[in-house]
Amino acid sequence: MAERRVFAGPAVRKVRREAAMTQAAMAEALDISPSYLNLIEHGQRPLSATVIVRLAERFGFDAAKLGAEDVPGGLAGLRRRLADPRFADLGIGAHEVDEWLQTAPATAAAFARLFDAAPEGRADVEGDAPEVAAVRRAIEKWRNHFPDLDARAEELADELRLAGGDLYGTISERLRTRHQLGIRILPADVMPDRLRWLDWHARQLMLNELLRPASRTFQAAATLAQIEAKDEIDALIAGAEFAEAAAARLFERHLIQYFASALMMPYGRFLRACDATGYDLLLLQRRFGASFEQVAHRLTTLQRVGARGLPFFMLRIDRAGQGSKRYAGASQSPLVDGDARCPLWGVHEAFARPGEVVADLVELEDGSRWFTQSRNVAAPGATGGGTPARFAVCVGVDAKVAAPLIAARGLDLMRSAATPIGLGCRRCTRTGCVQRSAPPIGRPLRFRDGERGVSAFDFAGD
């Protein structure tokens, strides 16, 4: 098979402009002629493997993610939008979509925004309030990796390590000595609806007694983030240019929590531990004094140029399958889209198997395979109406790159039997599914006298 030719003129031009370089200066840095670079930028020459490597080494360029920062869901997201039944008569091929995203990412992003805003569309923000959707887009633009926050958190973590081995203790001491803030642990009946309360007047950080040790450390670290990473966080919020004040506050909360996670699991040390342990989730929990959910979130952030981890996604759902956290990271996984889940996916099984990590190899209709690991977790301290709030937290990665995982050891990830799933019944066109609860969008129902299939809905195929 011929090697795919990569045309990436707009992306290369964007990299050059961000580096504030002329074509001549960038051509010299890449050891190519200015005329050749000019042809590349105008889409008249593809990128050679040599040039791609030089762009990656010298400018952090990632050819595998062309246009992904502009289109939510990247190439996979654009393909899903164009697979809408309204475009079926156009016969749009996968190669055409790929070429569009490479050569004209801005127009592809414009189409994605219009599609998502249409009442019939909203493929990637289904179920999200407008401000939540805006924050999701901002996070996806960065692939949930914020280099400035990671660098600041890593620097602070090293300082705290020198001060002592107990992170919670050293954070408490820093809050006391640097910021004149004491920590008090209050009874649950005093703080029935709060996990953390920072009272500047009393110079106290009050934490709910129901917080487990990992969550207590996380909340203390979040308070430190509000104070010591304020400049970096404010700059990121300003750069996002949100139209809604609520979106800015939600994004601020995400960045504060990001910093707290990065402080507990500093980038370099955490990535080395991931590589050394085969991404053993439970061992990483213990090594860094973190919860399963904190580790899962941290895995989606490992995209530092020159030191990337595997491209994980993370999803947190409740018993009804509603997603309260969805981070695609660099995975471009469609499994985090929308608010509908396939009931055949092992993430739901986690509720019935508390304490276990449920591994599942799943295959989507497009043939892509994903290796996922899910665990039942309790909310950090709070309860709702007397009933403990519980969630299933799932992390997953493309099966093509999942071989380093200790949980996948011994599996032939591309040939072993996989669970066939869809992206929710309304978006799934698999026939004969006994779990189907609704017919797919755009497929007319079919009725045959004297017959009853295994599914409640029979519909026309391709």
Q: What does this protein look like?
A:
The structure is a single chain. The chain is of the alpha+beta class. 40% of the residues lie in helices and 14% in strands. It contains 16 helices and eleven strands. It has helices at residues 9-18, 23-30, 34-41, 49-59, 74-82, 94-103, 105-117, 130-141, 147-163, 167-179, 213-228, 230-240, 245-264, 267-277, 281-288, 292-299, and strands at residues 182-186, 196-199, 204-208, 303-304, 307-308, 313-317, 323-327, 357-363, 369-384, 387-398, 419-420. The strands form three sheets. A six-stranded mixed sheet has the order 7-6-10-9-8-11. A three-stranded mixed sheet has the order 1-3-2, covered by helices on one side. Strand 6 and strand 7 (323-327) form a beta hairpin. The longest helix is centred in the middle third of the chain and has 20 residues, at 245-264. Mean pLDDT is 86; it is low at 120-126.
